[in-house]
From TrEMBL:
Occurrences of domain MADS-box (ranges): 1-61
The protein's name: Uncharacterized protein
Domain annotation K-box: ranges: 85-175
Coiled-coil ranges per UniProt: 119-168
Any Pfam family matching the protein: SRF-TF
Intracellular or extracellular location(s): Nucleus
CDD domains registered for this protein in UniProt: MADS_MEF2_like (cd00265)
Length: 205
């Protein structure tokens, strides 16, 4: 008969949980004993039941095994701390080197400390400056174009407002458009008042 796969979660039924604990505990103690005998290994096992009852197994002396474990754990902790400290020192040295390199580069970009530079180093510094200037000019031109576009938009807005104001002055508020030509009625009146020397008859002497 094939056994089903046991789901790894807490058994809710108290009786089933106690039965399972007893079976698994005995099996674990048996495996610890077999491992110590077959492989000549120093094995120590400590089990506390849900109610706090102690079950233990030791192939030699439990206290000596625990003491040995604590000493080994302490040594491992010290070794881990030493390795961590070495890594920290290495990281600090790497950071100091990077800071020193950045400081040298900064001084060279400012034109300082160039006496000890080789031709290749000076060429690299020059190339870096040219790249920086190219980026700076591109950014500056972009900002200038944006400013010009804003000014043009403002100019268009002002011209539109001026046009609307002129239309309101000429056509709004009940006023007639201003014209430089006189009314046609005045033209007719002036034409009727004009004197002429033309007459019928012989010319005057």
């Amino acid at each position: 008969m094939v056994r089903g796969k046991t789901q790894m979660k807490r058994i809710e039924n108290d009786t089933s949980r106690q039965v399972t604990f007893s079976k698994r505990r005995n099996g674990l103690l048996k495996k610890a004993f077999e491992l110590s005998v077959l492989c000549d290994a120093e094995v120590a096992l400590i089990i506390f039941s849900p109610r706090g009852k102690l079950y233990e197994f030791s192939s030699s002396s439990l206290s000596k095994t625990i003491e040995k474990y604590q000493k080994r754990a302490k040594d491992m902790g010290a070794k881990t701390a030493e390795i961590s400290m070495q890594h920290s020192k290495g990281d600090t040295l790497d950071m100091e080197k990077k800071i020193e390199h950045f400081e040298i580069s900064r001084r060279r970009l400012l034109g300082e400390g160039l006496d000890s530079c080789s031709v290749e180093e000076l060429q690299q510094t020059e190339n870096q400056l040219e790249r920086s200037l190219t980026k700076i000019r591109a950014r500056k031109n972009h900002l200038i174009r944006e400013h010009i576009e804003r000014l043009k938009a403002e100019e268009r807005k002002l011209l539109e407002e001026k046009r609307k104001l002129l239309q309101e002055i000429e056509c709004g508020k009940g006023l007639t458009p201003v014209s430089s030509e006189p009314p046609r009625e005045e033209i007719r009146a002036e034409s009727m008042d004009v004197e002429t020397e033309l007459f019928i008859g012989p010319p005057k002497r």
